[in-house]
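ugh ok so i messed up the first submission bc i forgot one of the chains. this is the corrected input, ALL of the components this time, i swear. 1249 residues overall. if the numbers dont match what u have on ur side tell me asap before i send this to the collaborators (the ones from the other lab, u know who)
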Amino acid sequence: MTKMIGVDVGGTFTDVFVLDEASGIAEVAKVPTSRPDQSGGFLDGIARKVEDLSGVGVVVHGTTAGTNALLERKGAKIGIITTEGLRDVLEMRRRDRPRTWGLRGDFEPVVPRNLRLEVPERTLADGTVRVSVDLEAVQAAARELIDQGCLAVAILFANAYANPENERAAVEAVRAIWPNPHVSASSEILPEIREFERFSTTALNAYLQPEVSGYIERLDNALKQGGFEGEFMIVQSNGGVMGTDTACSLPVRTALSGPAAGVIAAGHIAHTAGFENVITGDMGGTSFDVALISEGQSMLSPQTSIDFGMVVRTPMIEITTIGAGGGSIAWVDKGGLLNIGPESAGSTPGPVAYGLGNTRPTVTDANVVLGRIDPDSPIGGKLDRLDVDAAARAIDEHVGKALGLSTVEAAEAILTVANSRMAGAIRLVSIERGFDPKRFAFMPFGGGGALHTGAMLKEVGIGSAIVPRYPGVTSAMGCVIADMRQDFVQTINTTTSALDTQNMQLLMQGHVDDGLALLDAAQSRFEARDTVFELDMAYIGQTHTVSVPLPVEVIDGRVTPPTVEEVEAAFDAAYRATYGRLLKNGIRRVMNLRTAVIGRRPKFDLRTLAPAGGDIAAAKLGSRKVHFGDAWHETAIYDRLALPVGSAVPGPAILVQPDTTVLIDPGLVGRTDDFGNTIITAEGA
Amino acid sequence: MADAIDPITLAVLAGRMEQIADEMDATLFRAAFNPIIAEAHDASHGLYHAETGDTLVQGKSGLPIFVGVMSFAVKAVIDKAAEAGDLEDGDIYIFNDAHMGGTHLSDMRLVRPFYRDGEIFCYLASVGHWHDVGGAVPGNYNPSATEAFQEAFVLPPVKLVRGGELQQDIIDILMRNTRLPQSAMGDLNGQLGALDLGTKRLNELLDEYGPATVKAALDALGNRAETLMRSELSSLPNGRWEAVDYLDNDGITDEALPIKVALEISDDRMVLDFEGTAPVTAGPVNIALPTAVATAYVAIKHIFPDLPANAGVMRPVDVRVPDGSLLSAEFPAPVGGYTETILRMIDVIFSAASQAAPDRVVANAYGTINALSIAGKKANGQPWVMFSFYGGGHGGSIESDGLNHGNAPISTATIPPMEILEAAYPVMFRHWALRPDSAGAGKHRGGLGAVYEIELLEEKAEAFLFGERGRYAPKGVVGGDTAAMNHFAYEQEDGWHSPPLASKMLGIKLKKGQAVRLETPGGGGYGPASERTAMSVAQDVALGYMTEAEATATYGSTWKEADQ
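and heres the new structure output, hopefully the right one now
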């Protein structure tokens, strides 16, 4: 049982990373993602590298099954039972609109209005039950939903975060007549104030439950049939893994599963290589995704919108996306300004050079025309060669002519504008959080990121970049690396002076007990168990809260809560760090308690990925002309995986490997470190 | 238009400057105390021309109406400073005078000259809607005001910061004139923080590119916006189209007030002439001229959503507002209800433009901001004011039905969650729901309005409403029908009552257990109702968007046979 397998299913490819801890051999496989059922590609990818699953200890899966079901509206038919007078909360949203300008577009919630049923019940904001829930009405509603063919039901009551009594009674009443694992209450899924966000998260979870749990069961069965006796786990949006039982009951937590795993891997690779502060840039076909890791910690955001009106509130690795991917289309508007995206040719039909029907130039086409991508061996193995002439014609037609530029100048212009937008995203992500991007290293991953490394160093003023050994399968590798993690939240909503620390101890202890029980239930062994407590706090009258880390120790599973003075001091420190000044005479309020229980999984030694031996001369494959700035440079081409540890390749150079092209601009040098990463810095640095 | 800048640098700088304004927005949203800024984003930041005050760049998340209006605010400061002759680096002006800066007195504007090499390179400005700025009514929507003085305290442009020194006496005056000084101080700090950040970022950009290049980029962006606008106008037919709609009343006299527009397109130019609009009124539905011009910009940008947020767009547009009309009111005419008037301006511009460009224009949205405040004292003597705007339906468009429960076209504001309101104030929402039968019929019907019913949980309180569309319904376009009108009622011991002025009333006394009920309009329909498919009608009935009776009355009975 020495093998660990990570599988990341993306939109185009399914990536598999297999690590044999005993022999230290890592293998990767890339197969097309199967549709509509992703389990075919999943199993096919594993089969490419592992014949006998009985020797596999862990399979960890980063999945887009949940995200796709949400985006394509392919979840189950579900119903909701809600407080009288509030049946339309899901549909009314927070009174927003899809786009600022134009006033077009409508919205269809995942639960249509005729499947949203009201029952008499009401809890007030202070937790007082004003109207006890009418359980006969609840059961009548449940029967109606059964008759309508619903597969899941969510109970969504007002102020249930403050007192879940009515919701609990309603859930029991429904389960009594409808034995179904997919009956849930908003106070179980997210006991946090803000009804739309809580209802939306709970309803989307119910919408995904039948679909995602079916998918996971299919995979689980297939793995077992293949002789697998180890543990099967799923990556969550928070970057931690969870057991399949948890994933089946909380599928909404998988919303950003794959990208989160990539950031986790990036953090670990960077840390091992000696970089504690790193900004990752994942360039795919339609987007450039940026995440920030400071002192080894990735940032978490409290919620995201999967699509207009589809809000999921659960901690997620914060990933900022801009529409500047390889397939993003370059165009000149009527005012003569060159734009990149947001329209994208994606991976199908893809860039003009693919020859699959798109005729408008993309970022990839500019890279092809400038010689940065080898037209004779395209990544992914889907095509035999790329059509450079067609790419050049498209750039001429749509950009060159309009701006009075030659083909090469126009291609450089496309890259300049695309790079500027990508650099802007990096700047915004760091500056918004009060970080200076110059203190960070840049880590490109995904298929296209490593082509733009030099530009990011220059534009943002970053000193070095680290290109991981296998940039195209970073998310799959992250699956193998991620810790087990459970997040909990409970709204408290009281001033610090009225804070009941005994009650807080009970809440904290409850979170810890539940979290540790989940760790105990896992087969994995953990190197350590950590608990992190935070309070969302603000001054009375202020809307936005700040995250206040609490210095609380858990000893032998017992929580000692902080004193009110400690809470207030922690708030002052966090508030000052965020806003620079405290508010005189402000009354401090505790809004929510957030707890994370983490089981640290043992990390494999990244050194196992490093090349053994090799020599730089043998790794050289040849050379070709590549355009940089305003001239063509004869540029050496190397087989990246054959470069030995410690070798230094001066730019201009191109390092090729099956899933990525690494570009080293003139004036930069790429060194292979002890782990097989390529560290790119200015020459002489 | 000789652009002295290469197209690549221009594209890069366009993005970088917009990012500066975006970061200023983000700074204030995060720091602001009051939910109108923090949640509803009723604020804006940008870069403005050193001599004219024209909007050069505005952040993406700022309130649409401010794109046009802020240039007037900056110009007011430029004029004031020129008169005084003592402008220096490190100064920041503050004011809320709506007759100088547009919109209403709740919007506090901070304007800072940005110096580079001893000269003013441009202005940076921050505007945000404060929770309370004194006056007769908490939250400042006073439907019975006949002078600005009854709406709020009026602050002309004064120096809040002199050469980098914060003027505590100005702050003391401000804080003594609001019911919610802590909230106001939090917002003020946030606005100062946004201006600091903008100054820092702009300096970094100028260090990198040099003032001459950035200046050239700003000029080029203005010219480009103009070119884009001319090209959009050229795509429309030449002609003259009229539309008229009405405000219910001015809050004082129950008399309808016409808002009239004639839209004329000749080649690449457009005239919006508001001749025939009602004269200035005693009550607060007047607006100042800057607001009128800014509103024309908002309407135009909804029709051509790809235009940039830049004053160049308005160069080929002539906005003609008759002197003495309620669209060009002079100080101290009250302007507190400006939102209602500008929403109606947008409605008539849409109605006129839909005749010229039927595929581009959407039907009228719900057309009223419905500023509802409920105020009282808690058991411990603490005063409370719950103030919010309420949503309604959007108009149908060529591509789809209108959005249910959207925000106003002049804003991108979201509504606070019901649970946040219930946790902060002694109220309980009996209803927070869609309003069936409120959509305008059409091939693509309008979106539905909403029903909010709010019960008081404390012993007593007073309610104030400033709304519209209680007498005149939102209109459809291209043959679409009108939507349901606004309807407000309040509960007393002897049952439910409605205000004599339909949607405006102040000082409604409520006792514990009594409620107010607001039913907001839907959006107008797009295209004739006869072209709506029977299946769509049947689905509306099945979902409860329409009652059976209403469906049959509007669309005939064929829907009953439709196979869903």
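quick check: Residues 239 and 265 of chain B are 5 Å apart (CA to CA). that seems consistent at least. The mean pLDDT of chain B is 93.
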